[in-house]
Amino acid sequence: MSIIYTEADHSITLQTRDSSYHMAVDSYGYIRHLYYGKRLEPEDLFYLYRYYDRAFSGNPRAAGTDRTYSMYAVCQEFSNTGVGDYRIPTLRMKSSDGARIADLRYVSHEIRNGKYALPGLPAVRDEDGDAQTLEVILRDEPSKLTVHLLYGVFEKKNMITRAVIYENASEKSIVLEKAGSCCLELPYGNWDLLHFHGRHNRERAPERVPVMHGVQAVGSCRGMSSHQHNPFIILCDRRATEDHGDCYGLMYLYSSNFRAEVEGEQYGSVRAVMSPGDETFCWRLQPGGQFTAPEVLMGYADGLTRLSQQYHRTIRENICRGAYHLAHRPVLINSWEAAYFDISAERILKLARQAADLGIELFVLDDGWFRGRKDDNAGLGDWEYDPEKLPEGLDSLITGIRETGMLFGIWVEPEMVNEDSDLYRAHPDWALAEPGRAPARSRNQLVLDLSREDVQDYIIGFMTRLLTEYDISYIKWDFNRSVMDVYSRLLPAEQQGEVLHRAMLGLYRVLETLTTRFPKVLFEGCSGGGGRFDAGMLYYTPQIWCSDDTDPIERLTIQKGTSFGYPLSTVGAHVSIAPNHQTGRSTPISTRAAVAATGAFGYELDLSLISAEEQEEIRRQVQQYLEDEPLIRQGLYYRLGEETEGMDAFSWLLVSENQDQALLTVVATATHGNAPLIHLRFKGLDPEALYELREEGLKRSGAALMNAGYTLPMLTGDYPAFRLHLKKVRH
Ligand code: DGJ
Q1: Residues 485, 491, 495, 497: what is their CA dihedral angle, to the nearest 10 degrees?
Q2: Cβ(460)–Cβ(514) under 8 Å?
C-alpha cells in the first residue's frame, strides 16, 4: 500500500520507496501539508507546527476565537483565496456575483488502486501496475466550487503525480482566472531555485538562485512552453550537491503557457505553484462543468543526480509511448544543414547514398520539399510535394532512399500556415486572428486555430494521407513561431480566454489520433530546436530536437541543462559541419560526435564537403554509437561537473543498471600550456568489481575508480574530447 490513511489524526501518507508525502485534515476542516522528504512511517506530524497570534494575518471563521490560527501561517495542500492566505494563489476565481473568495474545506477522500485518468491530456502511465490514486475533495460551500486534488503515487519510481479538477456544483456559472495544477509547500529551511532558461539556440541553461522573500516566477506566454523557460523547476536545499541534499522537482506535462511561481514568505516557508499561465487565461465553468488542470510530475530525492535519474526513468518508461519509446532509435541524417531549401531529387539521393554507405540508418527530408516552399516565406499548408524540386515525385525519391537500405522520414509543420498558400486562400479564417485586425507575422507565417475541430480534422486528414500513401517511418513535427493574436472566431467573447488551452487540447487530440493510428512511426518533436521541449510533448513524441544550435561547445550547456529533467533518449543531437553554421566555430569531428552521441544521435551536414578521412571517421562513429546505444538510452546518467569544477571541462558518465558497463566523456572548452591534469572520481560503479578501461588497456577496481579516482591524460588541441569505456571483467 503506497497510500495510507490514519484515522486517529486524519492524516494521509503517500509512500514511495524512498520518500514520504504527508498531509492531514485539521480540526477546522483544512487540508494541511505536513511533510515531504525522506521516507518516514506514518505518525502524527502536527507537532511540527507551533501557533502564535500573528498580527495582520487574520483568522478564518472556522477557528472561532482562536487568534493563533491563521491561513497565512500554515502550509496547505491547496491554497484558499480571499480569506487571508496572502501568498501566491493556486486558484483565482469569480463567482456569479463577482466575488473572488473561496474557502475550500475538506469534504472527503478516496484511495484507489491504479492511476487516475486525465482524458485529453498527457499523463504519466501506470506502466508497472503499482500506482495508486488519492483523490481529495474540497468545497467552498457558498459558491459550490468543488476542487478534486488528484495524486498518483508511483512507489517504485519514487514519484508522485498531481492534477486538479475544478467543478462547478452550483446553478450559476463560475469563472476560473487561474487554475493551478499543484501547490507544494516547504515549511522550513533555506532553499535554492534551480530553473532552466534560455533563448532560441540556447535552451535550458541551468540557473541556481536563492529563494528570496517575495515571488520569483518563470513561465511562458507564447502559446508554447518556450525556449525562454522550461516547465520544470527544482527546489533544493542551499547545501545540496549532485550527491546529497533535499531536492524537489516539479515538472509540467504541458506544452503551452505556464507559470512556475515560488514564494519565500515572512515566516520562512516556501510555496511553489505550477499553473497554466494566467495572463490571458480565463475559463467559464457552466453549472456542472469541469476544468482539468494539466498534470505535474513531482519528485523528491537526496541529491540532484538521483532526482534527475528518477525523472529520466519515469519519462522513458511511463511517459514516452509508441514502438520506439524503449527501442533503439535509428541513427539519422537530416537534410536541413546539408541543403536547407536547396533541395533536388538528385542532391538528396546523393546525400542518402553517401550516408547509407557510412552505416546511417534513417534519412530525414527536412523543410523545403513541398509545393511553393522556395524559402521560409511561403508554402506552409500545402502539403504536397513540389514537382519542380521532385519531378519524379516523392514516391520515387522515397523508393530511391529505401533502396539504399535506409528508412525514410519527413519534416512537417502542421500547425502553421503561410498567407501565400492555397490553404490560407481557401480558409483565411482558420488562422488565429481577431476580425478587423491583421495578425502579426513571425517567420512570415500565421498560427492555425487548433481550438477548432475542423482545423484539427484537416491536420489529421493530411497527415493520415501522407503516412498512408508514402513509406514513411519518421516524422519531424516542427513549430516555428510563438503565438500572438489569440482569438478564435468560433468562441463567444466571454470564452476568448480559453483559446490557448483549447488549442493545446486540440494539438494533443491530433497527436493522440496520429500516434495511435501509426504506432510504428517515430515522431520527433521540434520547435525551432527546443522551444517545446517538455514532458507533455514527450507523451506523443519520444524524442525532441534539442536545439538548432549544433555547435558542440554550445550544446554542452544546453544538453547539461536538459539532463536535469529529461533522459538522453529524448534529446535529438546531431553532428554538423565545421565551421559551425550557428557560431562559426571549428571543432574536431570527434568532439562533435562525443557530444551528439549523448542523445538520440544523427548527422546533419553535406557529406560531399568533408574529407575521405572524416568520412571514415563517421563510419567508425556510427559503429561505436550502435555499440554504446543501449547504455546511452537506458544507463544511469551522472553529471560530473562538481568533480571537474574550474578545469574548463564538461564531464559526464553513464553506468549501466547492472553496473557492467560505463562510459565516461570529458570535453575541454579550453586548453592551456603546462596545465594541471583533470582528475575525477567515478560514481555508481560496483566497488567489488574489476573494470577494464578499454582505451587505457588497464584494469582497476570499482572501489579505486570511485575513491582514488582517475587522472586523464593531458588534453591538447582545440576543444578535445576524451571518452573511456569501462567493462566489468570480474565480480
Ligand atoms: C527549425 C528546426 O529546428 C530546424 O531543424 C529545421 O527543421 C527548420 N525549422 C526548418 O524550417
Answers
A1: -20
A2: yes
If you search the block for the grid coordinates 473572488, which residue do you land on? 100
- Which tens digits make up the pLDDT trace of 199-248? 999 999 999 999 999 999 999 999 999 999 999 999 999 999 999 999 99
Q: How far is the CA of 566 from the centre of ligand 1 (A)?
A: 21
Compute the radius of gyration of the chain from its Cα atoms.
Answer: 27
Kindly report, residue by residue over 44-81, the tens digit of the pLDDT.
Answer: 999 999 999 999 988 999 899 999 999 989 999 999 99
Question: Which residues fall within 8 angstroms of residue 510, CB to CB, at 6 or more apart?
Answer: 414, 450, 456, 459, 460, 463
388 is an active site residue:
no
Q: How far apart, in whole angstroms, are the C-alpha atoms of residue 635 and residue 579?
A: 32
Q: Give the helix, strand, coil percentages of the chain, each rounded to 5.
A: 20, 35, 45
Tell me the whole-structure pTM to 2 decimals.
0.98
Exactly one of 278, 534, 604, 628 is catalytic; which is it? 534
Residue 457 known to be catalytic? no
Cα angle for residues 353, 354, 358 (degrees, 5° grid): 115
State which ligand 1 atom lies nearest to the alpha carbon of 545. 3
How many CA within 13 A on the CB side of residue 77? 31
> Could you count the other beta carbons within 10 Å of the beta carbon of residue 492?
8
Q: Are 247 and 237 in contact (CB under 8 A)?
A: yes
Closest among 292, 319, 277, 298 to 119, alpha carbons compared: 292
